[in-house]
Design brief:
Elements: E1 18-27, E2 63-64, E3 73-75, E4 81-83, E5 94-97, E6 101-105, E7 114-121, E8 127-132, E9 136-140, E10 146-155, H1 159-165, E11 183-184, E12 190-193, E13 201-206, E14 210-212, E15 215-217, E16 222-225, E17 227-229, E18 232-237, E19 240-245, E20 249-255, H2 266-279, E21 288-293, E22 298-305, E23 308-316, E24 329-332, E25 335-340, E26 343-350, E27 353-356, E28 376-377, H3 380-389, E29 395-398
């Protein structure tokens, strides 16, 4: 009797086990050098074209959102299928929005070898930010007024993956396409974050057509201004700068938070300042640096502590009206005048545009609102503090 032998070869691989946490956030800044003005909170979910050139558009095809980790069997040493055990989901996930970037942080997960941080435009397809052994990651090159989702996945490596990861020299290396990272994900947990660093947005309708620098602003079109000075709004189109006289526009509107709505936490303000200074390659050798938030109508004073800028104090201010917006950008205090036009404590940062005090006839109710002719109004005690503690050359960022 002829017998046939059947030989069965079992190839056992240790699957990675992972879980997910997702975070939704609106990033600040765009790919253009000058940036675009933010919308109101109700408009912030609109998607715009990402103008940055350094956004990682590679899509993580390895992540399968429809597969549940608990449904994926593993093999034990005897070749018997066993049920895998999920790692705990990353907790205390936070997203800080900075200048054209965000930082994602989370708590360490027990038994995790590393973390896969994913991102997408809200409602889009998931891509990969980075694989890291640490508990934070940063995504750069994001657009303003665009909603983004971020998620963190804890990873348990295969034996092959563990060997490869031992050669990592930094904690922020991309490993797209490596087979040892293949793993299903759990259902993501979503955390919403609506209030992020943003800018005052001035918009208007053109009364008539204007042509300049090879660009055309058509009559009746809606435009968004970056700045204002000498009676003209500054508009950027395709990287070109156009100056539009105020007499050529109508139906002017301003979008910002408004009086007493909310304020940035010290952690948010500090991260924004750090990313802004780094991106614009500027520094300060003075004791203090000032940030005037055009969106929240708040002024923040930072002090250098162990090499890092930390929030020292902050308060509400009143910037220029929508018809006479305050000049914005990276400035320094150029001159100081104790009294001018009956107003005390002038700290001029752009010609006669200044951080100054109050007239006796002004009500404190204007704070947190657009009210001036281009200056930044402070209560007299706050303006005096700047006058006495922030010398000429102190950096003033209006954003």
């Amino acid at each position: 009797m002829k017998m046939t032998k059947k030989i069965i070869s079992l190839f056992v691989s240790l699957a990675m086990v992972c879980t997910m946490t997702s975070v939704s956030v609106f990033a600040t800044g765009n790919g253009d050098n000058e940036g675009e003005q933010p919308t109101t909170d109700t408009q912030m979910t609109e998607n715009i074209e990402d103008g940055s050139g350094d956004v990682d558009e590679d899509i993580n095809e390895d992540i399968n959102e429809d597969t549940n980790v608990a449904d994926t069997p593993m093999m034990n040493q005897q070749g018997t299928a066993t049920q895998s055990t999920k790692l705990a989901a990353p907790t205390n996930v936070k997203v800080l929005a900075g200048y054209k970037s965000v930082k994602i942080t989370w708590d360490e997960v027990e038994d995790a070898d590393a973390y896969n941080v994913g991102w997408r435009k809200s409602g889009g397809t998931w891509g990969r930010v980075t694989i890291t052994k640490g508990t934070e990651a940063e995504k750069k090159g994001l657009s303003s007024r665009t909603g983004y989702d971020f998620r963190v996945m804890a990873i348990k490596f295969t034996e092959e993956g563990r060997k490869k990861s031992s050669g990592w020299k930094t904690e922020d290396i991309k490993h797209d396409g490596d087979s040892y990272l293949n793993a299903p994900t759990s259902d993501p947990t979503t955390i919403s974050k609506k209030n992020t660093v943003n800018r005052l947005r001035i918009s208007f309708t053109m009364k008539r057509t204007k042509k300049a620098n090879g660009k055309t602003l058509k009559k009746g079109s809606r435009q968004y201004a970056e700045n204002f000075g000498l009676g003209k709004y500054t508009v950027y189109k395709g990287g070109k700068r156009l100056r539009v006289p105020r007499v050529m526009v109508r139906n002017i509107k301003a979008s910002y938070v408004g009086r007493g709505k909310w304020n940035y936490s010290p952690e948010e303000a500090e991260y924004f300042l750090g990313t802004y200074l780094k991106a614009n390659k500027v520094s300060s050798n003075k004791k203090y640096t000032i940030w005037v938030s055009t969106y929240t109508q708040h002024l923040y004073v930072f002090k250098k502590v162990n090499g890092n800028w930390k929030v020292d104090r902050s308060w509400e201010i009143a910037m220029g009206k929508k018809t006479t917006p305050s000049p914005t950008g990276n400035k320094v205090i150029q001159k100081k005048v104790k009294k001018h036009h009956g107003i005390k404590w002038w700290n001029c940062y752009s010609s006669w545009n200044a951080l100054h005090g109050f007239r006796s006839s002004w009500s404190s109710r204007i704070l947190g609102r657009l009210a001036s002719n281009g200056c930044v109004r402070n209560t007299n005690d706050k303006a005096q503090w700047i006058y006495q503690n922030c010398p000429k050359g102190t950096r003033v960022i209006l954003y």
